Amino acid sequence: MISTNLSDYSFEFPKELIANRTPGKGKTKILHCPKNGGPLEIVPAPKIVDFFNPGDCIVVNNTKVIPARLFGHTMHGGQVEILLVQTLFPDANGLARWEAWVHPGKAFPVGRELEIAGVKVTVEAINPDGARILCFDITPVELEEVMNKQGHVPLPPYIHRPDDEEDKKAYQTIFAKYNGAVAAPTASLHFSEQMLCDLKAKGVHIAEVTLHVGPGTFQNISEEDFRKHKMHGEHYELTQENADIINQAKKNGGRIVPIGTTSTRVIETIADENGFLVPQTGVTHAFFYPGYRYKIVDGLLTNFHWPKSSLILLVAAFYGRENTLAAYRYAVEHQLHLFSYGDGMLIL
């Protein structure tokens, strides 16, 4: 019997294991979890190259984190902050409009004008989930310039420190190309350029997808029966070139190994029942939890995720609840660092 109780997907950990900074690309540790059983083993990140075979295909997310956190004040001087979530069509005058999470919510009623990063902002609407639709008094291009100058790296909420210059590079993967994410696809943070070269030299194929990670990745599940949870939507794209790389690798018997939960969500959203892909763009609300049968994923590199999160459920759907929680206990016992800036696990 597969448990659908959220409380069954929790684990204990000391807070000092939360990684506040990364040791750098290719300098983390990876817990190798043999997919079909076998002893767990902790290896340096570059060592994972040894676990891949020629003809395998890794799938990475090429989204780029934007400086989406902006600070400002009300017209009466109260301090406020926003997290830009999704760009929207400009208004009739060509002014920038965004969906955003805001704090404090009471400062953002419909019609209210505020000043954010020196720019006048009007609250147009409030979504059912509490997000605001904001109209900025500048064009999208001008707003991008403001974000680049005054925006902050949107670090996860469990990292209790201000972002700094180091985070601008540390929280960006080597695959980052297209602006749009407000959270990094953190499994890719384990990769250095040298590791990528070593994989290619071994004959491992590299395919890319784009999924602009939203803040919903950190959204708590409020239902004890997690099947009732509604996932946030995230925009994705798979090009013809990358669909061909993945499909050809699969036809030739190579294993398809997404790097992270975001790449997993894209290819599992698109895959047909035989595990093949067609290029497309769209919005995925995919929510994978134990009982789901994966169609294309043969392995998974992922970070350690927050207890009772949609992400730990995705991993448990692939690796099994007992195996997943056993791996997490092993990681804690061996003092691996946890979450976005922490160490990772390779199920392969």
UniProtKB/TrEMBL annotation:
<keyword id="KW-0963">Cytoplasm</keyword>
<dbReference type="Pfam" id="PF02547">
    <property type="entry name" value="Queuosine_synth"/>
</dbReference>
<dbReference type="InterPro" id="IPR036100">
    <property type="entry name" value="QueA_sf"/>
</dbReference>
<keyword id="KW-0808">Transferase</keyword>
<comment type="function">
    <text>Transfers and isomerizes the ribose moiety from AdoMet to the 7-aminomethyl group of 7-deazaguanine (preQ1-tRNA) to give epoxyqueuosine (oQ-tRNA).</text>
</comment>
<dbReference type="InterPro" id="IPR003699">
    <property type="entry name" value="QueA"/>
</dbReference>
<protein>
    <recommendedName>
        <fullName>S-adenosylmethionine:tRNA ribosyltransferase-isomerase</fullName>
        <ecNumber>2.4.99.17</ecNumber>
    </recommendedName>
</protein>
<keyword id="KW-0949">S-adenosyl-L-methionine</keyword>
<dbReference type="InterPro" id="IPR042119">
    <property type="entry name" value="QueA_dom2"/>
</dbReference>
<dbReference type="InterPro" id="IPR042118">
    <property type="entry name" value="QueA_dom1"/>
</dbReference>
<comment type="subunit">
    <text>Monomer.</text>
</comment>
<comment type="similarity">
    <text>Belongs to the QueA family.</text>
</comment>
<keyword id="KW-0671">Queuosine biosynthesis</keyword>
<comment type="pathway">
    <text>tRNA modification; tRNA-queuosine biosynthesis.</text>
</comment>
